[in-house]
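User: what does the whole thing look like in 3D?
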Amino acid sequence: MMAEKAKILIIGAGKCGRALVELFSKIEKITIIGVVDFNQDAPGIKLAKALNIPTAVDYREFMNRAGLSCIFNSTGKAQIEEELMLSKPAGVEVLGGCSVNLIQELIEEREKVEQQLKGLAERRDNVVDNIGVGAIPINPKMEPLDCNKQVKKDEDLGKKDKIIESIIQNSAVATFVINSQHKVLYWNVACEELTGTKAKDLLGTSDHWKAFYSYQRPCVADIVIDNSFVDLDKFYKVYQGSTLIPNGLHAEDWYPKLGGRDRYIVFDAAPIYDTEGKLIAAIETLQDITERKKAEDELKKAYTRLKEMQNQVIQAEKLNTIGQLASGVAHEVRNPLGIILQGVNYLENKIPVKEGDISETLTMLKDSVKRADKIINTLLDFSRFTNLDLRPEDINSILESSLSLVKIKFESKNIDIIPEIKKDVPKVLADRNKLEQVFVNIFLNAIQAMPEGGNITIRSYGKKLEGIENGTSRREEGYFMIGEKVVVVEIEDTGVGIPEENLKKVFEPFFTTKGSTGGVGLGLSVTKNIIHMHRGIIYAESRFGQGAKVTVILKIAE
Amino acid sequence: MDRKRILVIDDEENFTKLIKWNLEKTGKYEIRVENSGLLGFSATKEFKPHLILLDISMPDMDGSEVAFQLKCDEDTKDIPIVFLTAVAKKEEVEANSGIIGGHPFIAKPVELEQLIDVIERNVY
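Assistant: Here's the predicted 3D structure for the full assembly of 682 residues, as structure tokens:
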């Protein structure tokens, strides 16, 4: 039926007719002998004229042309189709209605597919080709082929992809995306600005760590991809799971040279799944909160300073209160003591010498007055610095006399004394009685720390001060100069030790672990006061459960 | 030999009473007692003591104030003063030494023997 070149006639040059003209004009084996429409401005007529295809307002002009094999009726009018069926020459096919519509739809679909392909090609140019990895399919689940629907969908998806890409690229939040193989898919402009690393250097690679670290290690997005939340401690000091996204991760840290300066960065990474729930990528955002962090740190420091000052004030207040209390007590107690003593003196002159028991009673009264007075003196000692009676003293002899005062206690508690005393220790400028009080206090504390017995090692030696020892305050540091010759006394026990948090507190007034059974907690604080009066240093070291060591550093006598 | 006149200014009445008894018993002293700083100050001119035992802590007019007033008066400025205190505020006395002079002080409670010793060393 078909000759070498099929000759066709197109009736109707509307949208559909035009499509037919366009389609068939491109097919070599087909010749359009004419395009017919009563409207000579119809798009199909215009196209035909442009392609030098004959046109007419009446189809009958072409009806009897030799070789006409097919008439396409794109008017969609049944009346014309009937006319054609009656007037067509024998052997000429008439296609209209559904057939032509089908052709038109096919043509339109082809156009859409072409558009779609073009869009995909562009995307590929932008993303896929450049980086050599697949871009994320926004909706990778393919639905059963329904041409119209699919074409429409793909068109929407193409638009969506573009929009999403634009959103990521233009977001003010520094953002990057890696796929499940840890390859960088996106590295937006804000991210370039923040890190100082260009997208072109990272896209398609797994080098995103280079933007932050000098050695290869995972970023939060990598951790999210690998779901490896176990080793987080190795990588971040501050981190937590996302409070908003399951399997999301939040971390923060300082970066000394990120994008040219010191920055504190907050990272948030979230996994990206396809519709089947498969992990395909992870998105990570970076926020520079350096200023906020610095302000926070400043605030924290200020708060700590304030706390310290407050403690000092409280401490000073305590001491002040103790001072006032001591003065008050001294006044209230010593006046009656003065009366008692004068009374005793009066009675002593009244009684005959032979009345032995009376004079013994009076002696007892006097002794009691003296004892009470001594307690008041201790209290006053504590509350303020009394003048020291400083003389060059041999520290070893002071240690010996202190030991002799508590020797009985050592023996009764089954405690051995291990002296490691150097013989040629330089003399110290000291108030002998006060220093004895110091060492007795330290020994008594050591005894209390060893209820089951143990050893006390006593060391004394001279040395050049190499550095300021730990546990000292600034005031104490000012007492000595590096290189100054000092005398060191160490008293080490094998008792229960002091918990770290108590190491500094043991010298504070009213600090006691003895509860209601022991003292009021003034012993070691008086000790420290006395050492300070000597412009010396005292500190304690201990590992809880492994005994304690108290070190006293004193100036040597010039 | 005339007994030395000692003025004791202290608000503790029992204390001053015993001091008076004890010191007068020695036969060496004539004691007058005043139990307030103000009264003690006014009694000084009339009694003309050879020495004053002066308590520091007193309610109306304290010992340092009394001493200062006495120093300002031509008639009383040369009378030796021995301070008595229950609160051994040696530094307080020292801090005021420019005004009240370097007077000795006795901390309560004090033995009679020690008290006499201090008096004897300071009385003229």
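In plain terms: The two ends of chain A are 133 Å apart (CA to CA). Chain A touches chain B at residues 327, 330-335, 337-343, 345-346, 349, 366, 369, 373, 380, 384, 386-387 (CB under 8 Å).
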